[in-house]
Structures are given as structure tokens and as C-alpha cells.
Design brief:
It contains three helices and 18 strands. With 254 residues, it is mainly beta.
């Protein structure tokens, strides 16, 4: 056998070995898989709209994380919206709870930190925290009282004609709901009403019969809304309204 033939056969043998190894699936260790996979983290809130101070659950799952990685839940704080650490997450998959901060809209994120504390993955969601705002604050008006059936009823808006009388309009609102109190004096049996007319939701009406009080629990869509009163002309009385709304801003506006 010539030297050239031996050389060719040697090269062919090497190529065969390489092809055979390529055909065998490699059994990667978890660290090797993590080195190849792109780090990802997915998560969600149990509810993204909660009362301030309420407990909210956070559920997460991370994949493709490098060796020594840590997960951290953060939220924005201050007018500069800087990221503040909330809690380190001890596992790659799980759940925990946190308290909703004071009324406002906050961005939260879970970041994946590698062993050098560099962010290699992140995912963000918004949490809205709500608190009660008096209707008088949203109207930028003061309240007064009127005697109804032996007690004083506090009101911020009233009307004494069929109307409807629009006492408040919002092009948009940060409020998600409201609890309203109504009162009616004048001729017994006459009826007045509070009407909540929204751009993207059905009409909601609360009625009250003289002489007495009533209440209305209403939901708000966040879009344009009118608050109106209707009453009975010439009965010597008014329909009165007061209330409190659940809002994520101090004045009920976005």
C-alpha cells in the first residue's frame, strides 16, 4: 500500500468518526442548556387593579437562566420613576404576595440577574392602586347639609327641575367605581334620580322618593362620563347627591 493510499484512508476514518459523533444526540447538562437557551421570565398579578394596602399575588416562571442567576421583583417609585427593589424571588418558578402601595399607577418588573448582577432578562406589568376620593374633591366644590326625616344629609350637588342637570363632566377618569347617596325632599311620593351617562358603558340610574334617601353603586369605564340629576318641577323640593369614588389619582382625573 502506498503512502498516499494510507493517508487518504486515515482522513476518511477521521471524517467517519466526526459524522458518527454528529449523529449522536448530545446530553447537555442544565448549565450547558442554560448557556445556549435565551433567559426568559413570564409572570402576572392575581389582579392588576386593587385597593391601596391590599395584598396582591405575584406568579412567575423563568427559563433558560444562567448558573447563579437570581430573580428580583421591582417597582417604580417617585416622580422620576426609578426602580425600587420589592423582594428577591428564591426560586425560578413560584408565587409570592406583596402589598399594593399608596394610590397611583405603578410599573412592576421581574428581572433575571446573572452571577455578576447584570440584567439578562426582564418582563414588566402595570399595577393600579385605588383609594376613596370624595365627590366634592372631584367637583372642586364644598358640601352643605339639609334635614331629611330628622337627620342631616350632606350633599354636594342638587337640582329642582326635570332637567337633566349636568353637575359634573369628565373627559376621562381614573376612577373605577363610586358609591353615591341620594336624598329627596318636597311633596311626598315624588321621585328624583342620579344618572351616570358614559361613553363606553350603559346608563346607570339611582332613584329616590320624597321624603327619603337612597344609594347607588356604580361602575365606571374610565372614558368620558356625565353625572346628571333629574327632579320634579314645582314640588318645593330638591334631589340631592353626594358620594365617594374609588380612584387611582387624588382628583379622579387621569
Amino acid at each position: 500500500m502506498t503512502f498516499g493510499m494510507r493517508t487518504i484512508r486515515a482522513w476518511l476514518s477521521r471524517i467517519a468518526v466526526v459524522l458518527a459523533l454528529a449523529a449522536v444526540p448530545l446530553a447537555f447538562s442544565p448549565s450547558a442548556e442554560a448557556a445556549i437557551a435565551k433567559p426568559r421570565v413570564g409572570w402576572y398579578f392575581s389582579s392588576s387593579q386593587v385597593d391601596q394596602g391590599a395584598t396582591v399575588r405575584v406568579v412567575w416562571s423563568a427559563t433558560g437562566t444562567p448558573r447563579g442567576a437570581r430573580l428580583l421583583l421591582q417597582r417604580t417609585t417617585g416622580t422620576a420613576n426609578r426602580w425600587m427593589n420589592v423582594v428577591y424571588l428564591r426560586t425560578l418558578k413560584g408565587s409570592t404576595t406583596t402589598k399594593a402601595p399608596i394610590r397611583g399607577t405603578y410599573s412592576y418588573r421581574i428581572v433575571v440577574l446573572n452571577a455578576k448582577r447584570k440584567v439578562v432578562a426582564s418582563s414588566a406589568h402595570v399595577l393600579r392602586s385605588y383609594a376613596n376620593v370624595p365627590l366634592s374633591t372631584i367637583m372642586r366644590d364644598t358640601t352643605a347639609t339639609v334635614p331629611i326625616n330628622g337627620t342631616l344629609f350632606r350633599w354636594v350637588a342638587r337640582y329642582d327641575y326635570p332637567g337633566p342637570y349636568r353637575f359634573l363632566h369628565l373627559d376621562a377618569t381614573s376612577c373605577r367605581s363610586g358609591t353615591f347617596q341620594l336624598a329627596k325632599d318636597g311633596a311626598a311620593g315624588n321621585v328624583g334620580s342620579l344618572n351616570i351617562v358614559q361613553e363606553t358603558a350603559d346608563l346607570q340610574v339611582g332613584s329616590v322618593t320624597a321624603v327619603g334617601t337612597a344609594s347607588l353603586n356604580a361602575t365606571l369605564s374610565g372614558h368620558a362620563v356625565d353625572f346628571t340629576i333629574t327632579d320634579v318641577a314645582g314640588d318645593g323640593g330638591y334631589t340631592y347627591v353626594d358620594g365617594v369614588l374609588s380612584c387611582s389619582t387624588a382628583n379622579g382625573r387621569p
